[in-house]
Amino acid sequence: MLARKRFGQNFLHDQGIIRRIVQTVAPQPGEAVVEIGPGRGAITRPLLAACGRLDAVEIDRDLIALLRDPGAGLGGLTVHEGDVLRFDFRALARERGQPLRVVGNLPYNISTPLIFHLLDQIDVIADMHFMLQREVVARMAAAPGGGDYGRLTVMLAAQVEVTPLFHIAPGCFTPAPQVESTFVRLTPHVAPPFVLPDPALYAKLVHAAFSQRRKTLRNALKDLADEARIRAAGLDPGARPETVEPAGYAALAGVLCHGTPTHGISP
């Protein structure tokens, strides 16, 4: 079955990489594992063998028919047909009675919006393991001050720890993508790394800052915070957005909410 460009499909076929992925995820019997985009089942089969039951979300009806075929030998697999960007992970977690472990070879064209969709439901997720474009993972794990540091970095920092694990060459996929991939783990924080008094305001500040990242905080945030409030958060109004740590944006959100900064330390 040929990969479909409109679904961003690149099927993993390298058996060594498949084994390494499954060993890294280390699924255990009885765990609620969810695979996003199972494709032809290359990772599905070893995941299912390890945990005994597996949920998968797939949009391609031809692949769904392949996975549901009794001759496929995938007993214990439940395939949810539909767009993963609209999938209700909370409902599945309630049905399974435990937090979800999410795994997937994410289509590059929806990877960032999908990650934000999952962050909106992070309360029911135990961990996430993804194959992503190497440049995307670089942005996810970037340190302040560099060109890779941006909105994605800062939004993730408030909710998960990002751990890049290993790179995957284009030749491990069919068809081979034009970019290298990275396998990455996202683990929800057990305790928040900094006080976040208003997540929606934090997100609004971060979006405004990085929508105009070449401007100073003074100019990028002029519709949300004046210089006095920026300084009250311990920030330099003349700084560029990419130089500010995630805790700095949280501190500014605290000033705007309560008049005092949080200083990035959780209680």
Global shape:
elongated
CATH class of the largest domain: Alpha Beta
CATH architectural label of the largest domain: 3-Layer(aba) Sandwich
Query: What gyration radius follows from the Cα positions, in whole Å?
Result: 20 Å
Measured by DSSP, the beta-strand proportion falls in 15-25%
Report the total helices.
11
Secondary structure category: alpha/beta
Helix fraction?
A: 25-40%
Strand order within the widest sheet? 4-3-2-5-6-9-7
Give the count of structural domains: 2
CATH topology of the largest domain: Rossmann fold
Biggest sheet, open or closed, and with what strands and sense? 7 strands, mixed
Q: Could you give the count of β-strands?
A: 9
Low-confidence stretches: 1-8
In CATH terms, the superfamily of the largest domain is Vaccinia Virus protein VP39
Order of helices and strands: EHEHEHEHEHEHHEEEHHHH
Quick check: average pLDDT? Answer: 90
Distance between the termini: 53 Å
Keywords:
single chain; 267 residues; alpha/beta; Rossmann fold; Helicase, Ruva Protein, domain 3; seven-stranded mixed β-sheet; two-stranded antiparallel ribbon; 19% strand; elongated; disordered N terminus
Give a description of the structure.
This protein is of the alpha/beta class and 267 residues long. The chain has two domains: 5-188, Rossmann fold; 199-258, Helicase, Ruva Protein, domain 3. 35% of the residues lie in helices and 19% in strands. The protein has eleven helices and nine strands. The chain has helices at residues 15-25, 44-51, 61-68, 89-96, 111-119, 134-140, 151-157, 199-211, 217-220, 227-232, 246-258, and strands spanning 11-12, 32-36, 54-58, 77-81, 100-105, 125-133, 160-168, 173-174, 181-188. The strands form two sheets. The protein has a seven-stranded mixed sheet with strand order 4-3-2-5-6-9-7. The protein has a two-stranded antiparallel ribbon with strand order 1-8. Helix 2 links the parallel strand 2 and strand 3. It is elongated, with a radius of gyration of 20 Å. It starts with 10 loop residues before the first strand and ends in a 9-residue tail after the last helix. The relative contact order is 0.11. Residues 1-8 have low confidence and may be disordered.
